[in-house]
């Protein structure tokens, strides 16, 4: 009986992951010939999407929070910017897309694109489901700290689909911080337990 319940929970969790990935934000950055313009497009925008243009010193040149839109397009004109390297970032609930842009005199080129998957934290009742698509297959550390900042749990995973469920139903009334560290970043999620 326990095995059937466990399998059912795993399949439900995987279904939720697949559905959320099907509706994830997709982006593109297109060069326009013979100009210093780039056209940036987003489709399937989540409710918490932020677009930022940064210089090589991480100074924010442009920032916009997107909400209430399903699609987005913006023309970026680089004619008033100095030659150098710039970064266009789009951060949604599930990933960060970074474009590296090089401006040389009258030319603007996208020289690199990187997508960083963020972990999904899904809290239901007193359980927290954590999922991360680990495309790099490098170590992913999952840590849990209590409100006194004491480490109460640690696990390292290296698989493609990192999944962990934390059941806080018998935990002490306090807050816990779940930390996911991968090769790109560190992500935090706070869980408050009130029994």
Describe this entry's structure for a reader.
The chain is mainly beta and 195 residues long. The protein has 2 domains: 20-117, Sandwich (Immunoglobulin-like); 119-192, Immunoglobulin-like (Sandwich). It contains 1 helix and 15 strands, in the order H-E-E-E-E-E-E-E-E-E-E-E-E-E-E-E. Strands 4-3-6-7-8 form a 5-stranded antiparallel sheet, with no helix packed on it. The chain has a 4-stranded antiparallel sheet with strand order 12-11-14-15, with no helix packed on it. The chain has a 3-stranded antiparallel sheet with strand order 1-2-5, with no helix packed on it. The chain is elongated. The model is unreliable at 5-22 (pLDDT under 50).
């Amino acid at each position: 009986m326990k095995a059937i319940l466990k399998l059912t929970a795993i399949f439900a969790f995987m279904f939720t992951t697949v559905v959320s990935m099907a509706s994830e934000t997709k982006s593109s950055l297109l060069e326009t010939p013979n100009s210093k313009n780039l056209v940036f497009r987003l489709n399937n925008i989540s409710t918490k999407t932020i677009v930022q243009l940064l210089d090589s010193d991480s100074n924010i040149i442009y920032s916009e929070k997107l909400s209430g839109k399903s699609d987005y397009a913006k023309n970026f004109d680089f004619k008033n910017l100095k030659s150098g390297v710039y970064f266009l970032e789009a951060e949604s609930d599930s990933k960060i897309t970074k474009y590296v842009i090089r401006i040389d005199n009258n030319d603007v080129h996208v020289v690199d694109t990187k997508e960083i998957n963020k972990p999904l934290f899904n809290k239901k009742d007193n359980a927290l489901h954590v999922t991360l698509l680990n495309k790099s297959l490098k170590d992913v550390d999952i840590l849990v700290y209590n409100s006194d900042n004491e480490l109460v749990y640690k696990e390292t995973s290296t698989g493609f689909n990192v999944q962990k469920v934390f059941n806080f139903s018998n935990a002490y009334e306090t807050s816990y911080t779940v930390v996911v560290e991968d090769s790109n970043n560190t992500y935090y999620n706070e869980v408050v337990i009130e029994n």
